[in-house]
Amino acid sequence: MAELRAGIIGLGMMGRHHARVLRELDGVELVAVADAFGDPHGVAGSLPLLSSVDQLIDAGIDLAVAAVPTILHEEVALKLAEAGVHTLVEKPIANDSASGKRIADAFEERGLVGAVGHIERFNPALQSLRERLENGDLGDVYQISTRRQGPFPARIADVGVVKDLATHDIDLTAWLAQSRYVTVAANTTHRSGRQHEDMVSAIGHLEGGIGTNHIVNWLSPFKERTTVVLGERGAFIADTVSADLTFVENGTFQTDWDSIANFRGVSEGSSTRFAIAKREPLKMEHEAFRDAVLGISKDVVTMTEGRETLRVAEALLESARSGAVVQL
């Protein structure tokens, strides 16, 4: 079988990692790269450095990765759809949900595979957690809480922390629960003097009645990526930086130490840290995209899902502006 011919447009921080993984991916050959602003990380190697999506298309590619700034996603994605190129667009799918819908519709109408790079779905800890939730290991799920904090990344200039970082948490929460958001409320701040928000604190509810809580910022001097799923039998704690998954079960023994017992709703049980095979999420994402293009599977984040995630992000920003709970 001939290898799929792949191209990348956008050779910044994410583009260089996409290039590395595509060069290692079985069944795929990276044949073209493009960026109108050059190649700061030396991604092109022996390949000619192209300057536009049109030149990338002319190189005769089967699939593409669009890692350009968010504001350019619609222009680039629509040209790739028109040319019949299966495309993985970095998250968020677009600058706004109307643009995201136009992108999703263009790929669906042409029967092309369109995917969005919500890479957390391919984190081994979250994949194991999703499987355990589906198996009923936690019983009823009560709440999903996430914390995503760290210093400001200089690479981000066109969107704030909600569309850049919080979209990870919105997507992984709805995916873990297999349920959509129905209400959200949020507060944002602009502490660093930049155009866009740099911190958000949000709560929400999903269709199934699960509560959500998200703390996301670019203001912390440490990096944290934590997801806690609380339920009937205890809590799962996923650290997606280290891809560790821990389960703390509700205990069966009550303490007779009154000063501690007064602060405990349920008794503390055993804690188990699971052994998980830790493969690189970006490689797993690309394998899923390749297999979807080949018709082997459909395990990608669809553009329709990406657009729904962006719609929730916009609702968070609306709530922050208005001070009201937003219905979705």
UniProtKB/TrEMBL annotation:
Name of the protein in its database record: Gfo/Idh/MocA family oxidoreductase
Domain GFO/IDH/MocA-like oxidoreductase, chain residue ranges per copy: 127-236
Organism listed in the record: Sinomonas flava
Record carries keyword Nuclease: no
InterPro entries: Gfo/Idh/MocA-like_OxRdtase_N, Gfo/Idh/MocA_Oxidoreductases, GFO_IDH_MocA-like_dom, NAD(P)-bd_dom_sf
Any Pfam family: GFO_IDH_MocA_C3
Lineage of the organism: Bacteria, Bacillati, Actinomycetota, Actinomycetes, Micrococcales
Positions of the Gfo/Idh/MocA-like oxidoreductase N-terminal domain: 4-118
Alphabetically ordered keywords of this record: NAD
